[in-house]
C-alpha cells in the first residue's frame, strides 16, 4: 500500500472525467486576449467561467498601478507582515476597504480562502459554537476543521432551521457565530439575509457574511448582499476576496468589533504566510476605486446576467433559482455534463464543469459566470452554443424542465 493508495477511488473518478475528452482540471490557456476571450489550443475562446464580474483584469489604470508598484517595490514581500513588516500599500488597502464598507477595521489576507480560514477558525474557540450553512464553501468548512469550537450545520438558506438549532442551545454559555454567504458559488442562489439577520438579533449571536461573489455585484455601491437588503448593521464581519470583482488575488475581513486588531497576532493563516506582493495591492487599490467610479459596470453585469439566465431558461435548460452573474445549468448525469462541457469547449466556449461531490445535492453542473465586459453578442453566442450542443447530443427533451417560451 503506497501513501497515495487512499486516493485510488478519486483517481479512478478523475480518469473517467479526463478520459471523456479534455481534462477540465488542467485546461491551459495559450494567451488571454481580454477579460472575456482567451486562446485555447490555438482557438479564440469565449470565457464564461472566470468570476471576472466587472472585467477589470485588463483595465489599463489597474495595470499601470501594478507595474508602477512592481518597479518601486519589487516582485514580492518575501514574508509575512508580522515578520517582515507591512508596506504602505497593505495599510492603504485596509484603510480604503474599511472606508468603503464604513467599518472601523480591516485585515487583508493573501487569499480569500485564507481570510475565511483564518477569521472563522480564530473567532470561535473551544467554548464557542459555530453555525454553518450546509452548502458552505470549502474555505468555511476547512475553517470549521481548524477550530476547537463545536460545529453545527443548518439547512441551506433556511433561517427557520438555524433558529431552531440556536434555540436548542440557548443556555450555552460560550459565544455563537453564524456564517452564511451572499451569493452561493455553485448555483448562484442568494441567502435570505434579512431573515438570517432577524434570527441573529433574536438570538444575540454574531453574524459573518462571505460576500466573495456579491461584492461589486449587489448593493447600491457594490458592498454586497447585506447592503442590497439593508441589514449591514446586523452583520458583524464581512469577508470578501480580491479574486473576483477586483480582478486580482487576496482576501479581507472588515468589522466594527473593538479590539479586532488582536487577530493580527492570533490568526495563523494571517501570521504564517507571505503577504500580498505590492503590485497586487496596487492593482486592488485601483480596482476598488474603479468599482466605485463606475456603477455602470454593475448595471451592465446585471443586464448580461439576466440575458444569459433568461436565454438559457427559454431554451429549456434548468438554471438556478436567482438571476445573478452565476448561471449554472444542471444536467441529468455526470457523463452528459462531461460530454456537454467538452463539446462547448470545441465550439469555443469555456465555462466550469462542476461535479459531485463538490456540488449541492450532487448535481452535475455547467457553471457559468458572467462579466460586465461580455458583449451582448458573446452572451447570445453562448446561448446559441448551448442550444446547438444540446441538439447535437440529442438530449434537449431530457433537459426541459420549464417549457421553452
Ligand atoms: N468564498 C467563496 C464563497 C468562494 O467561492 C471562494 C472562491 N471561489 C472563496 C471564498 C475563496 O476565495 P479566493 O479564491 O479568493 O481564495
Automatic annotation (TrEMBL):
Cross-referenced Pfam families: Aminotran_1_2
Ranges where the Aminotransferase class I/classII large domain occurs: 45-384
Alphabetically ordered keywords of this record: Pyridoxal phosphate, Transferase
Family: Belongs to the class-II pyridoxal-phosphate-dependent aminotransferase family.
Gene Ontology molecular-function annotations: pyridoxal phosphate binding; transferase activity
Cofactor: pyridoxal 5'-phosphate
Protein name as catalogued: 8-amino-7-oxononanoate synthase
Highest taxon in the source lineage: Bacteria
Organism: Niveispirillum cyanobacteriorum
Annotated transmembrane regions: none
Gene3D superfamilies in UniProt: Aspartate Aminotransferase, domain 1 (3.90.1150.10), Type I PLP-dependent aspartate aminotransferase-like (Major domain) (3.40.640.10)
InterPro entries from the UniProt entry: Aminotrans_II_pyridoxalP_BS (IPR001917), Aminotransferase_I/II_large (IPR004839), AON_synthase_class-II (IPR050087), PyrdxlP-dep_Trfase (IPR015424), PyrdxlP-dep_Trfase_major (IPR015421), PyrdxlP-dep_Trfase_small (IPR015422)
Coiled coil: none
Amino acid at each position: 500500500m503506497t501513501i497515495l493508495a487512499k486516493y485510488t477511488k478519486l483517481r479512478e473518478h478523475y480518469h473517467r472525467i479526463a478520459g471523456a475528452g479534455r481534462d477540465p482540471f488542467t485546461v491551459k490557456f495559450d494567451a488571454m486576449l481580454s477579460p472575456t476571450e482567451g486562446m485555447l489550443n490555438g482557438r479564440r475562446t469565449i470565457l464564461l467561467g472566470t468570476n471576472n464580474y466587472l472585467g477589470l483584469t485588463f483595465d489599463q489604470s489597474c495595470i499601470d498601478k501594478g507595474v508602477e508598484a512592481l518597479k518601486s517595490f519589487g516582485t514580492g514581500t518575501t514574508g509575512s507582515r508580522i515578520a517582515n513588516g507591512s508596506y504602505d500599500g497593505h495599510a492603504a488597502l485596509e484603510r480604503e476597504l474599511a472606508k468603503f464598507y464604513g467599518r472601523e477595521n480591516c485585515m487583508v489576507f493573501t487569499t480569500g480562502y485564507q481570510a475565511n480560514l483564518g477569521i472563522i477558525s480564530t473567532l470561535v474557540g473551544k467554548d464557542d459554537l459555530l453555525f454553518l450553512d450546509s452548502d458552505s464553501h470549502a474555505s468555511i468548512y476547512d475553517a470549521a476543521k481548524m477550530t476547537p469550537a463545536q460545529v453545527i450545520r443548518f439547512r441551506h438558506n433556511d433561517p427557520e432551521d438555524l433558529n431552531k438549532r440556536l434555540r436548542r442551545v440557548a443556555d450555552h454559555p460560550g459565544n455563537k457565530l453564524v456564517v452564511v454567504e451572499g451569493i452561493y458559488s455553485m448555483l448562484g442562489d442568494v441567502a435570505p439575509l434579512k431573515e438570517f439577520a432577524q434570527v441573529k438579533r433574536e438570538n444575540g449571536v454574531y453574524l459573518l457574511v462571505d460576500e466573495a461573489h456579491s461584492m461589486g455585484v449587489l448593493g447600491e455601491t457594490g458592498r454586497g448582499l447585506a447592503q442590497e437588503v439593508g441589514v449591514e448593521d446586523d452583520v458583524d464581519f464581512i469577508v470578501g476576496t480580491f479574486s473576483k470583482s477586483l480582478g486580482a488575488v487576496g482576501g479581507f475581513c472588515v468589522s466594527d468589533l473593538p479590539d479586532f486588531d488582536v487577530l493580527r497576532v492570533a490568526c495563523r493563516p494571517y501570521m504564517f504566510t507571505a503577504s500580498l506582493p505590492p503590485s497586487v495591492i496596487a492593482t486592488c487599490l485601483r480596482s476598488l476605486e474603479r468599482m466605485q467610479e463606475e456603477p455602470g459596470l454593475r448595471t451592465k453585469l446585471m443586464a448580461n446576467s439576466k440575458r444569459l439566465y433568461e436565454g438559457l431558461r427559454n431554451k429549456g435548460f434548468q438554471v438556478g433559482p436567482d438571476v445573478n452573474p452565476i448561471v449554472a445549468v444542471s444536467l441529468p448525469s455526470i457523463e452528459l455534463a462531461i460530454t456537454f462541457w467538452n463539446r462547448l469547449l470545441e465550439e469555443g466556449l469555456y465555462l466550469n464543469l462542476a461535479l459531485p461531490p463538490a456540488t449541492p445535492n450532487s448535481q452535475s453542473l455547467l457553471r457559468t459566470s458572467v462579466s460586465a465586459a461580455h458583449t451582448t453578442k458573446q452572451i447570445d453566442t453562448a446561448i446559441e452554443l448551448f442550444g446547438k450542443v444540446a441538439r447535437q447530443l440529442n438530449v434537449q427533451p431530457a433537459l426541459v424542465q420549464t417549457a421553452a417560451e
